[in-house]
Specification:
Largest sheet: 6 strands, mixed
Order of helices and strands: EEEHEEEEHEEHHEHEHEH
Strand content: 15-25%
Number of strands: 12
CATH class of the largest domain: Alpha Beta
Distance between the termini: 27 Å
Radius of gyration: 18 Å
Strand order of the largest sheet: 6-5-4-7-9-8
Structural class: alpha/beta
Shape: globular
Length: 230
């Protein structure tokens, strides 16, 4: 997966790209072939919910909201230097919440916070308010993502398989480290969890192999092992 700004438009990549937790899928020619948006009224309500969240958070909590459209991303405050790698290019900054952020073409809304208890309560509040009209997932230990119902990497991988004529359940190996990888890892022939991955992911899929940390080249090593490339 990659961010919204790293998607090739000329097909140079030569492969399908599943991005934004599966809310967008691009063909080998760079064409957008899958697009799922959060409903407009829900997006606006999420912005309104962010205002009391800001009041509840302390300065040390590092609270931030980001919004992802097809071609651009937005943030509620300037991105700290250590977070720059999350974005392919600098996002647009909009501190005028809830009125300044976009409500159309929104693939996902993310909430970043170092206060895990506050973030978990916000996830419960979002689920209670919207029920089945959204799906939530933790894409890292400090990031809560909200998408349209039915959106996941696993679902999009299955759709790609139907077009490209492969079956994820028998033909795919996948690696993941956070809860937004759960459906994908559970649906493929071999799912691998990174050693430094989220504990909730390991608990949800205890039968999967835990490989090395994603800070080293363990993916390449595992692929060589699985496909006997040595």
């Amino acid at each position: 997966c990659c961010g919204v700004d790293g998607v090739p438009r000329d097909g140079a990549a030569g492969f399908y790209l599943i991005v934004l937790n599966g809310a967008r899928v691009y063909s080998p020619r760079g064409e957008l072939v899958v697009s799922h948006n959060v409903e407009r009224d829900i997006v606006h309500a999420l912005y309104r919910m962010f205002v009391p969240l800001q009041r509840a958070a302390s300065r040390d909590d590092g609270l931030m909201m980001s919004v992802y459209q097809t071609d651009v991303s937005w943030v509620s405050t300037a991105v700290p230097l250590e977070w720059a790698e999350v974005f392919e290019k600098p996002p647009l900054v909009c501190e005028d919440i809830p009125t300044g952020m976009p409500v159309e073409d929104v693939a996902k809304v993310s909430f970043y916070c170092d206060n895990l208890a506050l973030l978990q309560q916000h996830e419960r509040d979002v689920r209670e308010k919207f029920g089945g009209r959204v799906v939530t997932t933790m894409s890292s230990r400090r990031c809560l993502d909200v998408m349209a119902p039915g959106v996941s990497k696993g679902v999009s991988l299955t759709r790609v398989g139907a077009v490209a004529q492969f079956d994820p359940a028998t033909d795919v190996i996948a690696f993941g480290d956070a809860m937004n990888d759960e459906e994908m890892l559970a649906s493929v022939a071999k799912g691998c969890i990174m050693e430094n991955g989220h504990e909730r992911l390991k608990e949800a899929l205890p039968h999967l192999e835990v490989v090395g940390s994603n800070t080293v080249i363990v993916v390449a090593r595992k692929l060589r092992e699985v496909f006997n490339l040595d």
